[in-house]
UniProtKB/TrEMBL annotation:
Keywords: Membrane, Transmembrane, Transmembrane helix. Belongs to the major facilitator superfamily. Proton-dependent oligopeptide transporter (POT/PTR) (TC 2.A.17) family. The keyword Methyltransferase does not apply. Its main location: membrane. GO terms for cellular component: membrane. The keyword Membrane applies. It is found in: Membrane. The chain crosses the membrane at residues 40-60, 67-86, 92-112, 182-205, 211-229, 358-380, 400-420, 477-497, 517-541. GO terms for molecular function: transmembrane transporter activity. It is a multi-pass membrane protein. This is Nitrate transporter. InterPro entries: MFS_trans_sf, POT_fam.
Amino acid sequence: MMSSQLPDAWDYKGRPAIRASTGGWSCAAMILFVELNERLTTLGIAVNLVTYLTATMHLGTAASANTVTNFLGTSFILCLLGGFLADTYLARYLTIAIFTALQATGMAVLTISTAATGLRPPPCTDPIGSCEPANGTQLGVLYLGLYLTALGTGGLKSSVSGFGSDQFDESDAGERGRMARFFSWFFFLISIGSLLAVTVLVYIQDNLGRRWGYGICVVAILAGLLLFLGGTTRYRFKKLQGSPVTQIAAVTAAAWRKRKLPLPSDPAMLYEYDGENVKGKQKLPHSNQCRFLDHAAILDAAEEKKRWTVTEVEEVKQVVRMLPTWATTILFWTVYAQMTTFSVSQAAAMDRRLSTSFVIPAGSLTVFFVAAILFTVPLYDRLLAPLARRLTGHPHGLSPLQRIFVGLLLAVLGMAAAALTERRRRDAAKSGVTQSVFLLLPQFMLVGAGEAFTYIGQLDFFLRECPKGMKTMSTGLFLSTISLGLFLSTALVSVVHKVTSRRPWLADNLDDGRLDNFYWMLGAMNVLNLAVFVAAARVYVYKEKRPADAGIISSAHDDGDDDVLVHA
């Protein structure tokens, strides 16, 4: 029966996992349910939080928008913490269990915050500017709930996809195919959670009360946690591998420490283990980029206990090569942030009636954003990919960097559409006319389609190009671009609000501001960012096409058929 045992997976008692009785779709489904609830909760808070902060807590529009982006940004940046803990100390199973419980606790605090009368300022029918704003205690309880939820979200989000894929054996052809379908279902359930959040959950919040909407999330999270724990005896577990962040920091420190030692003229004189594998890793050839890091692999007689090999140094170099792409995708998520903040404020100021008895909740307009994502993915796979395959020769139609380029371009167009729509809305409002909320559809659809291209392109790029032993960190790198983009939105809103205080662009009453100027500014920034991305992408060579000891720029012109934009 030894053939039924998996070589690199263990059961909950630490014994080699048995293929027939562990893992598979039944276990993956329990894990997917946790992710469904995470998406439902996080987006359900984000898309409708601006209206609660302005109408109930009596905060200004700019402050409310920053609260939303700070909440989302913190959720994503904490994925790095969750990934580090999962890789180094807790493993994925415990990380998911602990942080899901924290998320449920945060949502319970939010439910209490919205239900208890004393935790909200008194109601006010006057304009927001003259209403009594929430005091420190009221905001403190609200923020406690928000950031406990963000902590839980970041921790579990870092491990859900990885632990789900652990339930399938990559060495088995049948299970490898099921793993590919797992990622499809993973994306599908994220989208379903998003749809439920922006439709059902937002409707409940607006019509039955926030306490009911948030209370439902608490029940859903606890139900998901119980279901997840119920699969403990059947899960497949992988042993801790250690965090790659430690390797990157240590290699960089070693290179700095030995910076005064001369680099050998022959790279073969740098330290490397004998044999085909290095600590279970496939050897990587030496390259001439980032030569400073080669100092870490110089043989030093005084360094006996820990020597860094060429392969380990090359893994760090590869992460460095990815940084230009990482940096130039941050601004897309700043545009994304506007879809859950100022675009919702625009919707609240427009005609949202479908009939005399039904008014669309302002937060539910983001359903068109989600719909654009769901529409773009099959459209690309069925129509655009075959066409692009004939034009570019790439087996998947567009390379990861080409997908990102399309997403960044759509972000520029989305901001242009948003600026033109806001100017039309504002001019009409000054004439006493309330425009239809459906004028916002172009900006939601363009940025939503942009997210489909950018998200999938980034994920593919970071997973493909990151060294084999750093897959968890590669997901963290990707998610950190979302976080930094959201935090950048917070910074831009704060600066613009201060600089334009005499003639505010971001007024509490949108009719008194110039939100269209803010959108034009973001559009211009994204045009410049797109130019920098193109420059970086033209000289990037994918990992499998990079020969040893060849410069990136010279190789790009030799192997350009897979490089983004060189022949696009």
